[in-house]
Structure formats: C-alpha cells, structure tokens
Amino acid sequence: MCGIIGYIGKKNSIPVLINGLKRLEYRGYDSAGIAFFRNDKIEVRRCAGKIRDLEASIKNENLKSVIGLGHTRWATHGRPSEENAHPHRAGGIVLVHNGIIENYFELREELKKKGHVFTSETDTEVICHLINRYAQKGLGFEDATREALKHVEGAYAVGIINEKEPDKIIAVKKDSPLVVGTGDGEFFIASDIPAFLKYTKNVVILENGDMAMLTHQGVSFSNVQTKKPLKKVPSKISWSPSMAEKGGYKHFMLKEIFEQPRAIADTIRGRFSVGKGEVNLDEFSMKESALKNLNKIFLVACGTSWHSALIGKYMIEDMARVPCEVDIASEFRYRKPFIPKGSLVIVITQSGETADTLAAQKESKKLGARVLTICNVVDSTSAREADSVFYTHSGPEIGVASTKAFTTQLTGLYLFSIALAKAKGKLHSREVKKLFNELLLLPEKVGKALQCNSAVLKIARKFCQVRDFLYLGRGINYPIALEGALKLKEISYIHAEGYPAGEMKHGPIALIDNDMPVLALAPDDNVFEKIISNMEEVKSRGGKVIAVATEGNTKVLSHASHVLSMPKTNYYLTPIIFSIPLHLLAYHMAVLRKCNVDQPRNLAKSVTVE
Questions:
Q1: Which of 2, 47, 324, 595 is catalytic?
Q2: Nearest Cα to 608, choosing from 298, 300, 310, 302?
C-alpha cells in the first residue's frame, strides 16, 4: 500500500512523477501529491482522491522542475484528506513515507512541547519535524536525517528533499520496500519497479538500514546508522514496460488471468527433468538430505496465498505423507506456535513484503525453524530473509485481486511436494515422471480452460445483481471454493461464502432459496457422487446451481442449471484448472456491476503494515 516515486535528472520531473504514480495505482490509495522545486523553493500539490484529480489541479500551471517527489497514500493514521496527504513539510524539509511509525505519538508530544506545530494527523509528519529540528541545530541534510531516524521506531521507506540543498534526494529504507533506478544522467527512487520502468531497467533494491543519496552526478549508498559507504551494483530487470501495462485488455486483472499459461510455463521451465525424474532442488535452494530429514511442515500465508497453502497441505500430505499445519500469518505468532526440530516453515507471498507474513517468518526463524519462501518478487524482504527461496515467474501482478500469482504458487507447491515425496521414498521414478508429464500439459490445459470466458460472461449477466453467493467444494478443491468466494467479495462487493460441501447441512442450507445461487466444484474424483448429492439438496430447495465439472462428464448436466466444463488433469492440478472460471466469474460480475476491478475499495495490493 502507498506509492513513492522520486526523480532527479534532466527531464521535467512533473510528468515523470505523475506517470510513476499512475504505475503505482495498483497498490491502493486514497490521496495523492507531488513536491518539486520552483524558484529555489519547494512547492507541494496534494489532494484527496485519485491521481487524475491531482493532475487536473495542476494542468494549467505549466510546472517545470528537474527534481521532485510523488506519493499515493492509503490512510493509516488520519482520515483521507488533503492535509493528511503526502508529501509533508516542516520548514525546508519535505518528504514522502510508506510504513508506520510506532512511537509517533510520543515523538509528536515531545516535539509539540518544543514549539513544533503539526498540520496533519499523520505519523509521517513527525519525521519531517525531527529532521528539520536537527537541521536547525546546524547539521547538514544527510546528518540531520541520520540523527532524526535514530529516534524513529517502526517501518519506513522515505524520500526526502531540502530547500537548503536543492540538488539532492535522500532515500532510506527500513522494513518497507524501496528501490533506486539508475538511468542516463537521471536517477529514481520508488516503492516498486514499475514506477520508473519506462525510463530505466537498472535497479538497486535497498536493504534495511540503507541510505541512498541521489544527485545529478549519480547515486551513493551508505548505512544510515554507521555512515559506512556501501557498494551497490544495479541489476538489470527483464520486465518490459508493456508487462506492467494492460496490453490491450480492459483491465489488468483480465490481462493477468489470460497470462496464466505463460506464467505457469515460465514457472516450470528449468525446474525439473522428466528424463531423470527429478526436481531441480537448486531452484528451491535446498538439498535432498534436508528434505529427507523433514518431519513436519508449517504453511503460513495471508489472503489468496493462504488458499494456496491450504491446497499445499493436501499435496504434501498426500504425496509425501509429511504432516502439515496451515496458519493465517496474522494469527501465527500470536498463538505461540510449537515448532519441533526437523520442521520447515513455508511462507507464501506474492509481493514478499506482506507485513503479517514477514512477522510470522521472523518468528519462525526466532524459534529455530528453516524457512522456505515461495514468492513472485526477486530480492523482496521475504526472499532475502529466508533460508531458501522458490521464485514464481508470473511477472508483475498489478491487479489487486491475485490470479496468476495464485496459480504459479500452486505450481511451486506441486513441484515441492514431488521433490519431498521422492526424497522420502514415497514416490517412485515412474510415478514422478507421470506427475511431470501432466505438469508439462498444464499451460495448454489452462489455455483451454480460458475458452470458457464467453460462457462465464453469460452466467455473470444472469446473476450479477444477486446479494449473496455460496461456493461449495470438497477435498483439495474446498480451498478453491474459498478462493472463488474471496474474489467475488473483493471486486464485486457481493457477499459470498466458501464452504466444504459436506458442511452444508450444518448451517448454510438454511440460506438456500431462489435468490441464492450456488457454485459447486464437481471434478471427476473420489467424492464426485457426494458433491452431486449436495447439488440435489440445493435444487430441491429452489436454489440455482452452477457446476464446474470435468470435460466429458454428462452426469452433472441434469443436476445443475449451468455447467462449465474444464479439461481433465490429475487430482493435484485440478485446483489450478478449476480456479480459472471462478476468477473469470468474479471479474465479469464486477465489470457488470461497474466496480473498480483493479483497485477495489479499501484494499491494497501489498499489505505492508499490520
């Protein structure tokens, strides 16, 4: 949540800042602002609302500046308003900030006693005043920033400019993502790479405690506390600007749903050998001996990634016969988990920056567990702090509702489960090869599943005005019922519940009537007859049944009002195939209801605070 962009160079910074903020809209925000130099003074423009409102407010001013900062804010301390929007100012110091300052109230009260006047309700403004206070005591820009941050507790990524030193931007990172871009005579800071990808692919990802000093001559790095110079070599990002844009689709979410065949193909490429019947364990940064000695696995995640974890439990326990526990990350450390020796904690996160997941990861390390993270973002905090990393290769995911990141997470868990089962002697090479062969067919089958798009749209038109929706699944597909319901809630604002179908008689059946559509996941598996019985229970009470079934299954036709047929795959990969129509249904329902698909209200792509 929240977006930062900073620029120093030869161009007019104003359009660079506005463009960068637009590239960060996916993070969720309720206000926006920019700061820039004009006539040796820093000017700030802010507004509650969208970037387009900010852009309209400065349209006729002909603003020009070669240095500036921009920010999109998602309210934590203080309501969404112009005065609470970033950038914030104290004297000649202006800054933007992502994160939360935990001791801001104490600092604020102390500064008030010393005569500082605050104009916002935010925690961020405290940092401004602290830096300004030390600058007034005679410290230079850099030293004033260092001294101020010694007193700040919490998470922060800050970009700072100073009227007295107008040729510099200072950036500092602690527990909130911040990157530096280096171009030809121009330099950038941002909370995420797409903000400046149009201008440069050369990126330095800041570590905790890193300070970057940007001038027209270049960028220097040091430790914010010790002042020790740091050598940082930019990495070249392979993403193209078009990968972070809509590519002709109406919304990022739809584009990302249709990118799944490519994303899955990229995720499996080079990760296993069919001929050898082996997973490439280097891709998990693990050795077979480490897998062989595992006695228990904990899967920890939030939101959609938690649904991946639930499915991972089915995969791992069924293939490898190793017991698994699944935790929502925000609850994990507060239940005082007991992690026995020989355990592995698998952390699943799209961004690698989710605050609750990072906290659970740190707690796991503190308790002596080995941590594997399954993550989409290279060099993210979760990836850097884990013992082992498996990168999904879905590419940038801009839409708040996760789709391709979800299915590539499941792909990674499938590979891990095979590797663990083989190391434990639970799968023979012949069985492994069969599992690999089905995985090779997966991108093609996902592509075929996407052909249901027009059929899903017809169903969405029929049900888009309902108030409630029930999703039913059994076994490994029960988490897909949860996932379908979550997507519908997130982007269409329809109340939806996912339930294990066998639990329907224990409560949800009381809700069934003509106005309550029920989507049932009915693949050809060992509980197919059970789900058919559940569908009949719905029909007999006047409910409308939408079935997602395996291609060629005709029995389901007489038990549902609408049937979506999916390509046949094995038990473990069925959730990937069956999630496709559910994501499409949520998308089309949201569009028909005129909802903001890519930026649903109150939600953010990367939840970087608890």
A1: 2
A2: 302
Neighbour-count burial of 437, counting CB atoms closer than 10 A to its CB (0-12 exposed, 13-18 middle, 19+ buried): exposed
Looking up tokens 């979506």 gives 564
Which tokens go with 32?
Answer: 């926006």
Is the confidence at residue 609, as pLDDT, over 60?
no
CATH class for the region spanning 3-241: alpha beta
**Burial letters 510-536, b for 16+ CB under 10 A, else e:** eebeeebbbbbbbbebebbeebbebbe
Q: 464 and 592 in contact (C-beta within 8 Å)?
A: yes
Question: Which H or E run includes 414?
Answer: helix 404-423
The phi, psi pair for 230, rounded to 5°, reads: -120, 140
The residue type of 169 is I
Cβ atoms of 141 and 135 within 8 Å: the answer is yes
Instruction: Assess contact for 468 and 496: CB atoms under 8 A.
Output: yes
Active site residue 2: yes
Beta-strand pair 229-230/518-522: unpaired
Task: Determine the average pLDDT of the residues in 282-294.
Answer: 89
In the numeric block, the tokens 């990836």 are attached to 383
Output the pLDDT for position 336: 86
Q: Can you count the helices (H) and strands (E) in the chain?
A: 18, 27
Average pLDDT over residues 562-591: 97
369 within 8 A of 344, measured Cβ to Cβ? yes
Give residue-wise pLDDT tens across range 16-73: 999 999 988 866 678 999 999 998 899 999 999 899 999 999 998 999 999 999 999 8
Would residue 555 show up in a list of annotated catalytic residues for this protein? Answer: no
Q: Which of 313, 404, 487, 605 is catalytic?
A: 605
Would the pTM of this model clear 0.90, i.e. be above it?
Answer: no
Q: Which CATH number describes the domain made up of 451-592?
A: 3.40.50.10490
What are the structure tokens assigned to 16, written together? 């660079």
pLDDT at 607: 67
- Mean pLDDT over the full length of the chain: 91
Torsion 88-93-95-99 (CA) sign: negative
- The runs of H, that is alpha helices, within 450-570 are 453-463, 478-492, 528-539
Position 397, amino acid: E
Terminus-to-terminus CA distance in the chain, angstroms?
11
DSSP string of 531-555, one letter each residue: HHHHHHHHHTTT--EEEEEETT--G
In the chain, CATH 3.40.50.10490 covers: 252-450, 451-592
Start-end ranges of CATH 3.60.20.10 in the chain?
3-241
Quickly tell me which residue has 């993502």 as its tokens. 177
Residue for token pair 């899903």: 456
Q: Which residue has better confidence, 168 or 537? A: 168
Q: Which CATH architecture has domain 252-450?
A: 3-Layer(aba) Sandwich (3.40)
**Under 8 Å between Cβ of 566 and 584:** no
**Tokens at 124, concatenated:** 């961020």
Please choose, from the candidates 147, 241, 228, the residue with its C-alpha nearest in 3D space to the C-alpha of residue 201.
241
- Inform me whether the pLDDT recorded for 100 exceeds 60: yes
pLDDT at 584: 98
Backbone angles phi, psi at 43, to 5 degrees: -110, 145
Average pLDDT over every residue of 540-549:
87
